[in-house]
Amino acid sequence: MRFVIVTGMSGGGKSTAQKMLEDAGFYCVDNLPVSLIEKFVELIAMPNSEITKVALGLDVRADSSFEDATRILEQLKEKGYQFEILFMDANEAVLIKRYKESRRVHPLAEDGRIEEGVRRERRILQNIRKNADYVIDTSNLLTRELKAELDRIFIKNEEYNSLMVTVMSFGFKNGIPSDADLVFDVRFLPNPYYIDELKSMTGNDKPVRDYVMKAEEAEIFLEKLTDMVAFLIPNYVKEGKYRLVIAIGCTGGQHRSVTLANELYERMRNQGGYGMKLYHRDIRESTL
C-alpha cells in the first residue's frame, strides 16, 4: 500500500493536490484530527484491506495539538508503518495574496492579521516540513505544472528531490526579479532589436533565436552556464534548497534573454531528479 500524508501551509495547495491524487486513484481523507491518525493507519493497513493507495490530509485547523503529529508519525515509523509526506508550500507574500483574494480568514489569525497567522502556522509546521519527503512550492506554479509534478512523483515514480528550478528571462530596464537566486547578464551579445525585421519578434521566434545563437559568444556562454548550473544543483539539493530561480536578463527582456533562457531550459529539462519551469517575465508570449 502507498500511503501519502498531504500537509503544508494553508493556501499552499493542499486541497488541489488531494483532488489530483484522488483523480489518480488515491483514497483521500481530509482534515482528520491528529489524535485519530494512528487508528486510521492501523485500519487501512489491515491485510484484507482493498485500498492500495491512500492520501491523508493533515490540516493545522484539525485541532490545537497539531504539533503532536510529528511525534505520532515517528511512533508509526517505529512500528513499521511506511508512509511519505508531501508538504505543500508557498512564500509568505503569495499566501497573503491568496487569502486576501479569497476573502477567507486564516485559521491562526486570532487578531485578524493574515501575516501573523501565516507566520504562526509556519512555526507550527516547521518540524513536519523538515521531515517531509517532498516539498512543492506553488508560489509560481500553474495548475497543470502542479499536476505534472504530482504525476512525476506518484504516478511515474520518478526520482524526486523537492527542488523546483525556474529559468526566467527578464529585462533589466524593468528591474531584476526579486526572487532570483542566480542572475546572468547577456547584454554582451548582439542585439536583434536593431535589426528591422527582428525588432517586433521575440526570442521565441526562430529568426531571433538563430540570430542570437549564431554568435560564437552565445554558444560558449551557454555551455559554461549549463556546466555551472549542473554543478550547483546537486549541491543546492544537499543543502535542502527546494526552489532555485535562474534569471537571465537583457535590456528589454524580449530577445537575447528569452533565447538563452529557452536554450538553457532545453538543455536541463531532461536531466531528471528535479522539476523544471520556464518563464518569460517581460513578454506576453509564454512557453509555459
State the shape: elongated
Distance between the termini: 34 Å
User: Please, what is the average pLDDT?
Assistant: 86
Estimate percent helicity: 40-55%
Largest sheet properties: 5 strands, parallel
User: In the CATH scheme, what's the topology name of the largest domain?
Assistant: Rossmann fold
Explain what you see.
The protein is α/β, with parallel strands linked by helices and about 290 residues long. Helix 1 packs across helix 6, helix 4 crosses helix 5 and helix 9 crosses helix 10. The mean pLDDT is about 85.
Features:
single chain; 288 residues; alpha/beta; Rossmann fold; five-stranded parallel β-sheet; 10 helices
Question: Quick recap of the structure?
Answer:
By secondary structure, the chain is α/β, with parallel strands linked by helices. The chain has ten helices and nine strands.
Topology:
Layout: E1 2-8, H1 14-23, E2 27-30, H2 37-44, E3 53-57, H3 68-78, E4 84-89, H4 92-102, H5 114-130, E5 134-137, H6 143-155, E6 160-171, E7 182-185, H7 196-199, H8 206-213, H9 216-238, E8 243-250, H10 256-268, E9 273-280
Parallel strand pairs: 1-3, 1-4, 2-3, 4-5, 6-8, 6-9, 7-8
Helix pairs in contact: 1-6, 4-5, 9-10
